[in-house]
Write a structure and sequence with these properties.
about 150 residues, alpha+beta, Ribosomal Protein S5, domain 2, six-stranded mixed β-sheet, 6 strands, about 25% strand, globular, PAC4
């Protein structure tokens, strides 16, 4: 069995001084898994664990393609909305089932996680995930596995 193509992405958390968003993206033959968390470079270097957040499964709806179906497999109040929104968006854009694990925290941002900060962070995560998927699609030997991938704006 061949290993699934995966990539790790690190982007700065918007409006935060040291905090970063870390994304681990794996594209399997028939599903995508995404794990998203936040940490400072010091925490990441020291191996400080981040708390487990929400874990959501989403899949495209054949009868209503604009509204993917989703179900939380593990729900944490602080991250369930972010996880569900990300899973549904990626499922809709790619047409594939998606698993999202999310423990993103916006407490270290300037206003402590205002709506604007969360939406800016969500936009950064979506951009990172979609670029990561496109990069996996372009890797040599992976093209036939991800030929069904559609990147839409």
């Amino acid at each position: 069995m061949e290993p699934s193509p995966s990539t790790t992405i690190s982007i700065p958390l918007p409006r935060s001084i040291k905090e970063r968003i870390y994304i681990h993206l794996t594209h399997r033959a028939k599903a995508i898994t995404i794990f998203v968390t936040t940490a400072t470079p010091d925490d990441a270097a020291a191996g400080v664990p981040t708390p487990f957040g929400s874990f959501v499964y989403s899949l495209p709806d054949r009868y209503n393609p604009t509204q993917p179906l989703s179900t939380p497999l593990c729900a944490e109040e602080e991250t369930i909305e972010f996880s569900t929104r990300l899973a549904k968006l990626v499922a809709r854009r790619t047409g594939l089932p998606v698993y999202v694990g999310c423990s993103v925290s916006f407490k270290s941002t300037g206003l402590g996680g205002s709506v604007e900060e969360v939406m800016e962070g969500f936009g950064a995560v979506v951009k990172g995930v979609m670029e990561g998927l496109e990069g996996l699609k372009k890797e040599k030997g992976v093209e036939e596995r991800v030929e069904g991938l559609r990147i839409e704006d």
